[in-house]
Specification:
This protein is of the alpha+beta class. It folds into two domains: 74 residues; 70 residues, Nucleotide Exchange Factor Grpe, Chain A, domain 2 (Roll). The protein is built from five helices and six strands, in the order ααααββββββα. The strands form two sheets. A three-stranded antiparallel sheet has the order 1-4-5. It has a three-stranded mixed sheet with strand order 2-6-3, with no helix packed on it. A hairpin with a 2-residue loop joins β4 and β5. α1 runs antiparallel to α2 and α3 packs antiparallel against α4. The protein is elongated and about 110 Å long.
Length: 199
């Protein structure tokens, strides 16, 4: 029985109980037998209300447990998938290094084959929800980027990623590997000039 059906049943029982209560005597006072009946009726109503509240709480607890189990199942699935995918990331790195190193036209056929396999591997991982972490030109984010060097630059905003040394990847919201990056910082003289202009 749903909560709505149970609520209607409780309302119908209350109406039947109210209908069964005899009218008070002409003086407005309830007779002793009627008082006992009214007290018992009130107790039954209180008991029904308590049972209804308990049922609502139990349903809420069940719903919360279902949501928690579903969330834990998703997290476990992501961890297992990550455990399988992480060893493939160095393979992607090796493909990228091989493709970057050989631009000799004599090896063009091999290069095309490598590119095809590399794209297929990326597409297969993408079907699992793996995506590359964007780094170049973005503000440094310690959650997804790992800075290995700070580079003085007048052309970039302070804290901007200027070079992606090794691609990072994430599985939906889970970071499999942060991107290794170089981050720009403004020369001290420029920062001093900017401060003096503000003052």
């Amino acid at each position: 029985m749903s909560l709505q059906d149970e609520k209607k049943t409780n309302q119908n029982q209350e109406e039947d109980a109210n209908a069964a209560v005899p009218e008070a005597s002409a003086g407005g006072e309830a007779a002793p037998g009627q008082m006992d009946l009214l007290v018992r009726l009130q107790m039954e109503k209180d008991d029904l209300a308590a049972k209804y509240s308990a049922a609502v709480r139990q349903l809420a607890d069940l719903d919360n447990a279902r949501k928690r189990i579903e969330r834990e199942r998703r997290e476990d699935t992501a961890k297992i998938t990550a455990h399988v995918i992480e060893p493939l990331l160095p393979v992607l790195d090796a493909f990228e290094r091989a493709l970057a190193a050989h631009s000799d036209p004599a090896y063009e056929d091999y290069r095309k084959g490598f590119e095809l396999i590399y794209r297929q591997l990326l597409e297969s991982l993408a079907r699992f929800g793996v995506e590359r972490i964007e780094a170049m030109g973005r503000p440094f984010d310690p959650h997804v980027h790992q800075a290995v060097e700070r580079v003085e630059s007048s052309e970039h905003e302070d804290g901007t990623v200027v070079e992606d040394l090794r691609h990072g990847y994430k599985l939906r919201e889970l970071v499999l590997r942060p991107a290794l990056v170089r981050v720009a910082f403004r020369p001290a003289t420029e920062l001093a000039d900017a401060d003096s202009r503000l003052n």
